[in-house]
Amino acid sequence: MASNKHEEIAQAAIRLFEKKGYHATSVQDIADEVGLQKGSLYHYISSKEDLLMQITHQAINGFNRNLEKIMNLQLPVREKFILAFESHLNSLTSNMSMAIVLLREAFSLGEHQHSVIQQATDQYLDLWCRILDEGLASGEFHHTNSRLTALSILGSLNWVYRWYDSNKRLSPNELAREFANIFLRGIERR
Amino acid sequence: MASNKHEEIAQAAIRLFEKKGYHATSVQDIADEVGLQKGSLYHYISSKEDLLMQITHQAINGFNRNLEKIMNLQLPVREKFILAFESHLNSLTSNMSMAIVLLREAFSLGEHQHSVIQQATDQYLDLWCRILDEGLASGEFHHTNSRLTALSILGSLNWVYRWYDSNKRLSPNELAREFANIFLRGIERR
Amino acid sequence: MASNKHEEIAQAAIRLFEKKGYHATSVQDIADEVGLQKGSLYHYISSKEDLLMQITHQAINGFNRNLEKIMNLQLPVREKFILAFESHLNSLTSNMSMAIVLLREAFSLGEHQHSVIQQATDQYLDLWCRILDEGLASGEFHHTNSRLTALSILGSLNWVYRWYDSNKRLSPNELAREFANIFLRGIERR
Amino acid sequence: MASNKHEEIAQAAIRLFEKKGYHATSVQDIADEVGLQKGSLYHYISSKEDLLMQITHQAINGFNRNLEKIMNLQLPVREKFILAFESHLNSLTSNMSMAIVLLREAFSLGEHQHSVIQQATDQYLDLWCRILDEGLASGEFHHTNSRLTALSILGSLNWVYRWYDSNKRLSPNELAREFANIFLRGIERR
DNA sequence: TATGAATGAGTCTTCATTCAT
DNA sequence: GATGAATGAAGACTCATTCAT
């Protein structure tokens, strides 16, 4: 379990990376935010990049864990499908900054680290494909290229951070249902 | 009209910004790519940020122009809708690097410049909303929150740069039709 | 008398200073090697430089003590001369790392500390001069500038750490006799 | 041919590396010495280590070149031998600072770079061995382990930087002859 | 138009040392 | 004795930009 300070630093980094971007955030900025000297940070992190890695890793893992839980439920595909939308948007909006860092800044990781995140992201895509394939197998969904459909869905959902305004009327769950409906109509057998 | 050299520089910048990201690309990198000295670049550009601005501006303008052309056609909404998908994906894939810079790096612009791009992006969203509203008015599409639907669509389409592989079987137009179908089924009246 | 821990730390420092050099060795490195925390080291040492001082001091003292013992023997100069070579190379090779730290890193000491070492080193040179002068007085050695000769000898002997390989065929005593022979022939009266 | 500024920087570095040591000399120190900003130095050097590399490389090359010239002369071995001593001490004392950097600081180079210098140093040793072998072949020198003898000689000569005071009565050539005599008597056939 | 020298602020990171617990 | 958090100065190096030639 990470020390309080470490968590505090991570949270500060998330805030700053979201607001200014990874590259535009200096280690000094983070230190200031936490009230430590630049050098002192290095008791808790090994490098700025490693900090980004931890954040993005934690973020993608959250998405994966939540979707896996849903996959394991004994429910009609249709309901799983809707829950998946809800899960994604709840993960996204409940810690929007972290999600933004994942979606926008992971690219700044070094090749190796980036590939680790990429792999976890691919896993997430697979989970979505599995839902679609289940629906196909059960006859509830008509035939589609499930990977393409999943990518379409994920695009819609991930784009949300670019425009979602949490003070607005739409709750994450409401939005999830709106989006789910569009896609459900698009793929359900009539 | 931009001199040849200026265009050459812009192209080099696009390539590099796409490959390494805006911040990770140095002015030196660009100069090397063009075969000029760092200092000489400044005869053609006023700043690195300005270069990014020009690229993103040109990119978003391309998207807007192409979609406007389609809007002005005298065609059934359904066909306009499909053409819009094709237009977007052709713009995107025909100059993927530029589109990537737009979608991924515009955020690195200063506040003011960024807001200019944002405005053009909002315009683009409006065009999509207009298509959906047209369909609603003509009775072809059933009632939806058109802005939400447009955002869903744009999310799907813009996400494409994250996974699209031009060497793969799917042409931009094929992909456009696949995506259009999903959304058409989602919003067309039965 | 130094505690065990203190000795352990000194030994670790010797190893590390020899391998990486004084400047390139961090206090952290030493702490790691001993299995202590950085902060804990300071119960045993007062500073990194002081550690170096102790090591070099101990080293040069060893050389001096051993040579003094030989000087006090009642033996023909010729034999003392040879014993001196043996003494030097035994001191050097029996704790090569320490000798290397003395010969290579003493320069990193602050001015004052360095001068203390320098003084002890000068003493060592004097002992060698005395041997040569004894030989001259007894008529065994022909006339030379004894200081110059001593410096020549010490150069030969101290250079040994740069190339001596303890796994090689040559034992320190064998090497001592080889070197002693060269110089004996060089200075002995025919 | 190196620009003036580059040479100026190298000279400043030599002075500083000699006086304070490589590690204790900061890039700032060098910049100050040359009257440039820290950053400006990097127009001329690629790194501090590279600067050290250049200096040591140039130094060892000087030693090698001079000794090679002597090797190619048509002279009795005895005279070559003496010339070699003179050559070494002239190289050493004519640019003492540079020689000191070579002898004392080359160890601070990274493994790869250090091995390059080491190789050139080994070559230099070989040249000395060849002189001794020539003397052996011609019957002028009696049988010795030439490598050991060469190492003994080089030790004597390289140690000189530790005590030689140029304001003192002894010129490099005089010193060379003193040293050469010691070793000549040590190895010449009677 | 093109150069390349120069800047100076800024980057991340390291490190010897101190000190409250 | 031992810890480990904290410091603060210093480290090498990068970079966008300017400008005299």
From TrEMBL, chains A, B, C, D:
Organism taxonomic ancestry: Bacteria, Bacillati, Bacillota, Bacilli, Bacillales
SUPFAM superfamilies for the chain: Homeodomain-like, Tetracyclin repressor-like, C-terminal domain
PROSITE patterns listed in its UniProt record: HTH_TETR_2
InterPro entries to which the protein is assigned, alphabetical: Homeodomain-like_sf, HTH-type_TetR-like_transc_reg, HTH_TetR, KstR2_TetR_C, Tet_transcr_reg_TetR-rel_C_sf
Keyword Metal-binding on entry: no
Residue ranges of domain HTH tetR-type in the record: 3-63
The UniProt record lists the keyword Repressor: yes
Pfam family, any one: TetR_N
DNA-binding residues (ranges): 26-45
Keywords: DNA-binding, Repressor, Transcription, Transcription regulation
The protein's name: TetR/AcrR family transcriptional regulator
Highest taxon in the source lineage: Bacteria
